[in-house]
Amino acid sequence: MRDNTIEAYDHIDRPVIAIGNEFAPGHVVLPHSHRRCQLLYGPTGVLTVATDHGAWVVPRQSCLWLPSGVTHEVRSSGLLHTRSLFFEPAAVADMPRQCQVLGVTPLMRSLLMEAIWLPLEYERETRDGLVMALILEELRRLPVQPLSLPLPAAATLSALCRGFVARPTAHDTIDAWCGQLGMSRRAFTRHFKLQTGMTFAEWRQRACLLSAVPRLSDGEAVTTVALDLGYDSPAAFTTMFKRALGEPPSRYFA
Hints:
By secondary structure, this protein is an alpha+beta fold. The chain is built from nine helices and eleven strands.
């Protein structure tokens, strides 16, 4: 297994390169970018990735698609072993040009764990090459998950959003934000949707969800997280969580 950065291997003429790394709890990888596209997977912890345009939380059941050239910062929650696949941009030209959290299928999980043990300059027509070719096929089948949070470009609204992300609450209202921005409700609603691509209620819920996932993954009680986020009851929070991710927290983090 290779424990290094992609820059040490970027020159190798292969469409896919696999790398594994280990990070201590709370480790921060400072803002950086890659020439290649990246699929980032952490089978033992939760990743939080941020760019100038948004934030993404990546639990153990998921991975993050990062297009080439995107400057990003990575934070770990708990001891983290990462598995990264780096793709030549031409080999994945049909993949999205924005970051996305993707579900990890059982097949892709097995392929990720196998790929980091293969030779860097694998023979394309052998089993090793076929594993990497199958990765390219399976990549396009990974389902998108609602674990991204777009951030607006407008400075004043961006400051409000970033403040909310630091202390999210399900009880913040449009009227309160309108008052802080000196905007009518109608103008604010239109402006917020234009800047984020989401309604205020959708964005607020997504921010609460992204705050909850690392805490629940670390073992905090659903009741504690739900009440901290301003939900009226753990049941109300669980309903929101299940609607977004398809399973209640107890099953999602099992």
